[in-house]
Amino acid sequence: MTNSTMTMIADPAGGIAGRLCRLAALAEPVGLFGLRLGIGLVFWKSASTRFDGFGLSDQAIFLFQEVYRVPLLPPEIAAYLGTFAEAGGAWLLFLGLFTRLGALALLGVTAMIQFVVPLTGDGINFNPGELFLWGGALITLLARGGGALSLDAIVGKFLHRA
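Above: the chain sequence. Below: its structure as tokens.
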């Protein structure tokens, strides 16, 4: 063994693994920011199609009456709750404010899309690959939070100073 190999074995933080860990630590805030924006845009785009001025469109309520048919909830309430969860969760992710709460709300929407709507809907088929990507991104945000480039981090630093 060479001297540098022995050093890497004795001190893994100085080897390739250590360098990769430091690089990952530097990239994590940017990655979490990208996840927040990317997954937020998916859900914001969906929610924004249901608005008609400052309220829900008649078409949105019709979708929940005739197509989505969420069990146990009247269609009007399901339409408002679903749209609020999508829009509100997306904005929480955009801002990085209460990121975990926003991710949890959107994870609930994703679960409804995956498990309830295909059973009650009008032959709607969703792409499970997309839903696994959404779920993975949301679980990552739920576990890691918004990262250093979020209002959560800024507020957290401010509160820890007080």
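Residues 32 and 131 are 18 Å apart (CA to CA).
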